[in-house]
Amino acid sequence: MSQLEQRLAELRFVDGVEKVEHIQFSTGDQFWVRFNRPLDMQRLQRTARDRGCNVIKFGGLLAKLPRGLSELLWDGVTHVIVKEISQWSMFISTLGFEPDGIGKVAIDLHGPYQIFMAMNETGIQLLYDYLGVKYVPPPPKPVVAPVKPATAAPKSPAATSDPANKAQSPPVGTKTLPSPTQTPPAQKVTT
Hints:
Layout: H1 3-12, E1 17-25, E2 28-35, H2 41-50, E3 54-57, H3 60-63, H4 67-73, E4 77-82, H5 87-94, E5 103-107, E6 114-118, H6 121-131, H7 157-161, H8 163-168
Antiparallel strand pairs: 1-2, 2-6, 3-4, 4-5, 5-6
């Protein structure tokens, strides 16, 4: 079982979890957990702070638009979890410019559920801490040594002297058996 499949199975049966998904985007893979009750934002903020992160509000202005328009312009993200952020970035995040983070919290625009989206392994670790599930880091990726092209064996002097002789003479140090069409050399009989 792969690490991803194991994580999907581990979190699927945690109390409060509705659905667990691995979502593939062109910008990178995300790990989504949909909850069947509201997230405890104070606990999430404490957990993030323990990991050296901040939970900031996002898209507050977009959330106030009428529902049909907000669904066109807004993906439901209400909070972003970031490692470091400036005051300016915090301000423009309220206008809908999302900072790069390790995770997001969104509301499902078609239902009452909240979704936690882990953007990388640090986000997954934060999610596990929030849920109180033991986190097991993924195994390290094997390091593959670069393959060097094979070099040709040095040619023997006999092989380079006559190309026609090369096909007929065996390599140095090997025994050859006569072929069935050849007659064996005459042996000298001594009396």
